[in-house]
Amino acid sequence: MDEFEQLQNALKYRRAKIRNRTVKLCDAAQQFMTKKVLPLQERFGAVTELWSRLLPAELHRHCEIVDVSGGHLKVRVDSPAYKYELQLCSPELLEELQQQCPRARITDIKFVVA
Questions:
Q1: How many domains does the chain have?
Q2: Which of 2, 49, 66, 75 has the fewest Cβ atoms surrounding its Cβ within 10 A?
Q3: What pLDDT is attached to residue 9?
Q4: pLDDT band at 14 (very low <50, low <70, confident <90, very high)
Q5: CATH number of the domain enclosing 90
Q6: Taking the model in full, what pTM does it have?
């Protein structure tokens, strides 16, 4: 086998290898949902549901859970007045979340004005 044939064979092998790595977007999205999003939803979906039940409707309209990680629940609030009100009731909120959503392992709640 001469050098030209060796080069062609090497390129053919490389092209086949590259083609095999392509993934359909729908397959990648499905895999991402299955491996990343759904487990988080199962773990923290109960937190957001309980949060909406614990708060009065007026207070709930002015805040939004933005992150649950490392035991910290981060809540965005639209004004300092509502942040203060939430901070006053945060010990009770934290206790309820810990009792009813133990899988989330929430240790504290942080309120940020945005």
A1: 1
A2: 2
A3: 76
A4: low
A5: 3.30.300
A6: 0.66
